[in-house]
Amino acid sequence: MTVLLERPRASIPVSRRHGRGFWLIAAVYLVALAFSTVPAPLYPIYQRVDGFSAFTVTVVFATYAVGVITSLVLAGHVSDWVGRRRILYAALGLEIAAGVLFLTWSALPGLIAARFLTGLGVGMLTATATAYLLELHKAHRPEADGTRFEIVSSAANLGGLGAGTLVAGALAQFVTSPLRTPYAVFLVLLALSVVAVAVAPETVDAPATRPAYRPQGVRIAGRDRTAVLVAAVSSFAAFAVFGLFTSLAPSFVAGALHQPSRLLAGLTAFLVFAAGATGQAVSGRLTPRTRFLGGLIAQATGLVVLTAGMQAASLTLFLAGGVIAGAGAGVLFKSAVGTIAAGAPAARRGESLAGLFLIAYAGLIGPVLGLGVAGLHVASTTSILWFTGVMLALLAGVAWLGWRRGR
């Protein structure tokens, strides 16, 4: 994978084209990830209309995560040789198809199918857009460090996830068709995203001989295998927190905390993702070790405060814990992405980032499904207590791996 050295257009130098493309792809990344969380604040409405249980919500959410993982396995690495733009076109096409399904088929089978298509699109897009942004950044500012890339890519990822819940929650609160209007709005934004991709310059030269296709699997390049393991486990733990707030947290707020507001449901998830994006932005100047330790401590502390809020039925404590845990998870995931992006060779960067996202999205499935199953037998306050215990043990394992690597 090499950066294209195209002949500059008369009116737009190459560096300016790549600089403009950088911001266009960042916007596409944000819109696509925002669309993926639109259903989060709407789940309580689906539950009321169609009689969903909390476990059904976790199944629907897991279907999305399965779609992401399937796509990462089959296509997450293909942009390394077919080009970034082709994969983004396919990903946006899948999300547009999902949006049409959301609009026209709101029953449970339609919801499951639409979530699976959304997952397929997100799986194709995440690693591709991250690698694309890095290459556009380097082409535009070859002498600069990676700070701008790290901040913008993280903000587009987590900021998009949070923006989707906030916009959907606000629309659901104030419009007459809460299960349709949010999707209609995002269909327009997704169509504009296709245009943005068409304007951005490609950064990958097609190889003379295309490599034989093979599924991705979990292959992360890098000579420091302990660092790769720390990054992988950190991403799993971080996404477990994000999974909680894009699946069951709105139902917890409406049920256990007795706050049925749709806007509040969207705001709850938004605050967590906004905290994650903010944590990533302000931690840019920290040393890698300080950033790693700070993320661990913040996520662990936030989980404890969040659980205390559930036990005390305190919305304030619950939100405070979510914000602290979200900030820690964001910093921890930024540390993981930085480690893999820096350690992987250019020709395998897309493949390596796809492998990292594959592990991260596995963190969305396991813990959240566990919460859903537990919710069939125990109160939500008890299942959250178990979730926190498991996550604290996992974070302790990450800390031990980091300490071992430091030695």
Automatic annotation (TrEMBL):
<feature type="transmembrane region" description="Helical">
    <location>
        <begin position="353"/>
        <end position="378"/>
    </location>
</feature>
<feature type="transmembrane region" description="Helical">
    <location>
        <begin position="318"/>
        <end position="341"/>
    </location>
</feature>
<keyword id="KW-0472">Membrane</keyword>
<dbReference type="InterPro" id="IPR020846">
    <property type="entry name" value="MFS_dom"/>
</dbReference>
<keyword id="KW-1133">Transmembrane helix</keyword>
<dbReference type="Pfam" id="PF07690">
    <property type="entry name" value="MFS_1"/>
</dbReference>
<keyword id="KW-0813">Transport</keyword>
<feature type="transmembrane region" description="Helical">
    <location>
        <begin position="261"/>
        <end position="280"/>
    </location>
</feature>
<feature type="transmembrane region" description="Helical">
    <location>
        <begin position="292"/>
        <end position="312"/>
    </location>
</feature>
<feature type="transmembrane region" description="Helical">
    <location>
        <begin position="227"/>
        <end position="249"/>
    </location>
</feature>
<feature type="transmembrane region" description="Helical">
    <location>
        <begin position="181"/>
        <end position="200"/>
    </location>
</feature>
<feature type="transmembrane region" description="Helical">
    <location>
        <begin position="384"/>
        <end position="403"/>
    </location>
</feature>
<feature type="transmembrane region" description="Helical">
    <location>
        <begin position="114"/>
        <end position="134"/>
    </location>
</feature>
<dbReference type="GO" id="GO:0022857">
    <property type="term" value="F:transmembrane transporter activity"/>
</dbReference>
<dbReference type="InterPro" id="IPR011701">
    <property type="entry name" value="MFS"/>
</dbReference>
<feature type="domain" description="Major facilitator superfamily (MFS) profile">
    <location>
        <begin position="20"/>
        <end position="407"/>
    </location>
</feature>
<feature type="transmembrane region" description="Helical">
    <location>
        <begin position="21"/>
        <end position="46"/>
    </location>
</feature>
<feature type="transmembrane region" description="Helical">
    <location>
        <begin position="52"/>
        <end position="75"/>
    </location>
</feature>
<dbReference type="InterPro" id="IPR036259">
    <property type="entry name" value="MFS_trans_sf"/>
</dbReference>
<feature type="transmembrane region" description="Helical">
    <location>
        <begin position="155"/>
        <end position="175"/>
    </location>
</feature>
<dbReference type="GO" id="GO:0005886">
    <property type="term" value="C:plasma membrane"/>
</dbReference>
<protein>
    <submittedName>
        <fullName>Putative MFS family arabinose efflux permease</fullName>
    </submittedName>
</protein>
<feature type="transmembrane region" description="Helical">
    <location>
        <begin position="87"/>
        <end position="108"/>
    </location>
</feature>
<keyword id="KW-0812">Transmembrane</keyword>
<keyword id="KW-1003">Cell membrane</keyword>
<dbReference type="InterPro" id="IPR050171">
    <property type="entry name" value="MFS_Transporters"/>
</dbReference>
